[in-house]
Specification:
The complex is a heterodimer of chains A (about 350) and B (about 260). Chain A is an alpha/beta fold and about 350 residues long. Helix content of chain A is about 45%, strand content about 15%. The longest helix of chain A is centred in the last third of the chain and has 37 residues. Chain B has one domain. Chain B is mostly helical and about 260 residues long. Chain B contains nine helices and no strands. Classes of the chains: A alpha/beta (about 350), B mainly alpha (about 260).
């Protein structure tokens, strides 16, 4: 008996193909049942997310036969008749187990090291477990995968740092202010990125949100959505004495805030630090304001460069993570009693 | 100190428990050595420049070990250890460890209390200047968008600013108490002419005024941030550069 995996992911196929193979959650128990009834799999778990569709199975067949049968199962289940080349991948032990560990750890994800996939994998496993489609082999493999993901998260830097503009802004705020819970945020310009940044700050406990926009109705709508207060566009500078973080994203062709305007406002703030996040292009805030004491200005390029560096740092950790995964997979397989190595590590199907 | 250099080079991305443990070990040895010397002299070992310097170092490390219970502030050790090392090497100069007995007319308990409180206050000022240095480093990194600002495990600058202020205020209170016990000590000297115009007394009053100015600047005029941090560092550097000289030139403290 061997643990095998067959599937498609963002690495192997475009969304137009992936969406054809996606399983709705309600259909998964029936699909697992039919897979087991066919005799191809003794145990099975189906993982279906926006970035991947994968079937993990314990099969009594030889891997090449199991791959053919599983590919047929995928095609028939979705009534897929178009030709396929490298879109579907298939792995047997030990690569199948290593792949499962990589997926759980976010190493195979589009955003390297992201954690959402672990929750999705747990949900897929719980569904199969609840319906009685897993046995000792897959139970051990999945439980070990969750442990490996935890180990990698705590012992490596693969999940460290923010890779989106909103979360980098939050990290910057946390490097300046002792607590975000007593900080007030002012949004100037009700754009999409500023909304996301505001939501990220709110999720970390920011006390209140003020929204100011040229179209006041839009400001009122966004403020209501964020649980904040709308401020008329002409009056936003009057709020400066009480705000700590400003996110600006207007479409103004000139600076909305310059040094001459900010200098007297800083005196009203009694020298408390002020974080300015300018995500507008062209920029809303004059770069010279950064020379004022207690003012910290970051524009979109600064935020993106930090996010890119975090991603680079994550990529540097991949080799360390893969080593851990390889060792853990070998330990699990020796527990199963499988021989190390495999004559059929990976296959791509050509159904023609 | 070598481990601190390693942490600097790594951009403070590693937890600092190694520095903390090394300083804890050094503190244990230092305390034993000071206790042995104290028992052999039968009073607090702060009677000459060597002992006073060593006592100030001991105080800085003791305060650091207390503050370092909060993991993020543990990085203070990495900033403090080069200073500690340099001052420790300076204290080993043989001429600083001159033997002289305490003045017979002064009560030993008050003199020891005065010396201990003064040393504790300089220790607090020393650690405050270390926190200020850490603040300036992090503040500069944030201003100039250095990636180290965000990647390091250092605390937020507002927390560092609060640490600078609290340590400086503690030092000021200890300094005030130390000077008050010094005044009680002076009352035991029969001839006031012997200490009138003593350089160390004038210098101590100047240091007290300097720190009073910083306390007023911080709590009366809300002057925090960069200027306050520079003030904390500048004041301690002044103390470091003039402490030994004024001590040597004071007949009261260097009989």
């Amino acid at each position: 008996m061997t643990v095998v995996v067959i599937g498609l992911s963002h690495h192997s196929s475009p969304v137009v193909v992936r969406e054809r193979f996606a399983f709705a959650e309600a259909r998964i128990p029936a699909a697992l049942q039919s897979l087991r009834d066919s005799g191809v799999a003794l145990e099975a778990v189906i993982l279906s997310t926006c970035n991947r569709v994968e079937v993990y199975a314990v099969t009594p067949l030889e891997p090449p036969d199991a791959f053919t049968a599983l590919r047929e199962f995928l095609a028939v289940s979705h009534d897929y008749r178009d030709p396929l080349t490298d879109e579907i991948y298939a792995l047997s032990e030990p690569q199948s187990v290593e792949h499962l560990f990589k997926v759980a750890s976010g190493l195979d994800s589009m955003v390297l090291g992201e954690t959402e996939i672990l929750g999705q994998l747990k949900k897929a496993y719980d569904l199969a477990l609840k319906c009685g489609h897993t046995g000792s082999r897959l139970n051990k493999a999945f439980q070990r995968a969750f442990n490996v993901a935890k180990h990698i998260r705590t012992d490596t830097n693969i999940q460290r740092g923010s890779v989106s503009v909103g979360s980098v802004a939050v990290e910057l705020a946390e490097k300046i202010f002792s607590h975000l819970s007593d900080r007030n945020v002012l949004i100037i310009g009700a754009g999409d990125t500023s909304e996301k940044t505001a939501r990220a700050l709110l999720s970390r406990g920011a006390r209140s949100i003020l929204v100011s926009n040229r179209s006041h109705d839009k400001a009122v709508a966004l403020a209501a959505e964020l649980g904040g207060r709308a401020v008329p566009f002409e009056d936003w500078s009057g709020e400066f004495a009480n705000v700590d973080i400003v996110v600006s994203s207007t479409s103004a062709p000139h600076y909305v805030l310059d040094r001459v305007k900010l200098d007297p406002l800083m005196k009203l703030r009694r020298n408390r630090p002020l974080l300015l996040i300018d995500i507008a292009v062209p920029r809303d805030i004059e770069p010279e304001v950064n020379f004022l004491e207690n003012v910290y200005l970051y524009n979109i390029d600064d935020l993106q460069s930090i996010a890119a560096d975090y991603l680079k740092q994550r990529h540097q950790e991949v080799a360390r993570c893969e080593k851990i995964i390889h060792e853990k997979a070998q330990a699990l397989l020796s527990h199963y009693g499988s021989p190390p190595g495999n004559p059929h590590p990976r296959a791509a199907f050509n159904p023609q | 100190m070598i481990y601190s250099v390693f942490l600097w080079r790594k951009g403070f991305r590693r937890d600092n428990h190694v520095t903390y443990l090394l300083l804890l070990l050094a503190f244990g040895l230092h305390t034993s050595a000071m206790a042995l010397r104290g028992f052999s002299l039968n009073h607090c070992p702060v009677t000459n420049l060597y002992e006073a310097t060593i006592f100030v170092l001991w105080t800085i490390v003791a305060l650091y070990l207390l503050v370092g219970v909060w993991s993020r502030l543990r990085f203070l050790g990495a900033f403090a250890s080069p200073w500690l090392f340099a001052i420790g090497v300076f204290a080993l100069m043989p001429s600083l460890d001159a033997t002289h007995n305490p003045r017979p007319e002064l009560p030993v308990a008050w003199t020891s209390l005065h010396a201990a409180l003064m040393s504790l206050s300089y220790g607090a000022f020393g650690l405050s200047s270390v926190a200020a240095l850490m603040y300036l480093t992090q503040e500069r990194n944030l201003k100039f968008h250095k990636l180290q600002a965000i990647f390091s495990l250092m605390p937020p600058i507002q927390r560092l600013e609060a640490a600078v202020g609290r340590l400086l205020l503690s030092g000021f209170i200890l300094l005030t108490l130390g000077l008050a016990t010094g005044v009680v000590d002076l009352a035991h000297i029969n001839n006031p002419q012997t200490y009138r115009g003593d350089l160390k007394i004038v210098w101590s009053a100047l240091v007290w005024l300097l720190y009073l100015g910083l306390v007023v600047m911080r709590w009366r005029f809300s002057q925090g941030g960069r200027r306050f941090a520079l003030g904390a560092i500048g004041s301690f550097v002044f103390v470091l550069l003039t402490f030994w000289g004024t001590n040597v030139l004071s007949p009261l403290h260097n009989p």
